[in-house]
Amino acid sequence: MPAFDLPLEELRRYRPEQPEPDDFDAFWTGTLEEARAVPVGARFAPFEAPLSGVEVFDATFAGYGGHPVKGWLLLPAGGEGPLPAVVKYIGYNGGRGLPHEHLLWPAAGFACLVMDSRGQGSGGSVGDTPDPVGSAPAHPGQMTRGIGDRDGYYYRRLFTDAVRAVEAVRAHPRVDPSRVAVTGGSQGGGITLAVAGLVPGLAAVAVDVPFLCHFPRALRVAGSGPYREIAAYLRAHRDHVDAAFRTLAYFDGAHFAARATAPALFSVALEDTTCPPSTVFAAYNSYRGADKAIEVYPFNDHEGGGPFQTLRQLEWLPARCAGPATAGVAVTGAGRAH
């Protein structure tokens, strides 16, 4: 389809006023402190897979509420530690899938932890992690589950799981905790931004066509995809508009980006009606780290750069994760960098 959003020269300057909750940092600090009251307890059980180039482990760790979260850990076969690592987050409705779907980063010499997405995993790739928390009436999908209350919103649990995934891989004896990167596309990109704003000491952040950014504009211009779930919910619950936007302000990728300092590589597609380019640039232009770049794909929709962006990441990320192994990296709560 033709470009539908702002012209590229305007997108590169796009910095909308996005008021954030006064207690944004306190909310996330408290959320993570509550989660850390339960030890992460990461377990990595050897998994028999017909793959000769990698070692595969069935991973389990404690996420939000101490709930068990599944994942895959893949290590280069026969490699010595400590290794740099990539934590990979999955797109909307996908799950951790099967180990052979995640061979890229082990082939490049990285440990790779693939986090399952609780309550998802029935669209595109299978999942194995239930979400034991219910919610008030919601539109089908995840976007409106608990949307009337920040404490019960689905993405509070998923973002907490994602932070704990970094803590889990940092605890592995063959991983260098100072050389951990995070990556994902679409929903996985939105999760990546949240983790970038919540976890200090990351080596790099790779964010592709991110979802969960600049909700007020996304709901006005997105023509397809999960943002429409919120619109459908609010068409029915006409009296919940203000409450919904109050909740969403705690989960906006642009607010997390303003707290993130790790080197970052973004991608955006100018014909993307699922994650409109203005919402991606709102997060990118807010990103606090000085070492940042964005790859622009003018004629692509939500598939974005695909293998071309993967190649760009393979060229970019190893340099950010290079360097000698160091002692453990402390993981603390949220907080805007000053």
TrEMBL record:
GO terms of biological process kind: polysaccharide metabolic process
Positions of substrate binding: Y92
Pfam families xrefs: AXE1 (PF05448)
Annotated active site: S186, D272, H302
InterPro entries tied to this protein: AB_hydrolase_fold, AXE1_dom, CE7
UniProt region (Disordered), positions on chain: 121-142
Top-level taxonomic group: Bacteria
Domain annotation Acetyl xylan esterase: ranges: 1-317
An annotated Gene Ontology molecular function: carboxylic ester hydrolase activity
PANTHER family linked: CEPHALOSPORIN-C DEACETYLASE
Protein name: Putative acetyl xylan esterase
Source organism per UniProt: Actinacidiphila reveromycinica
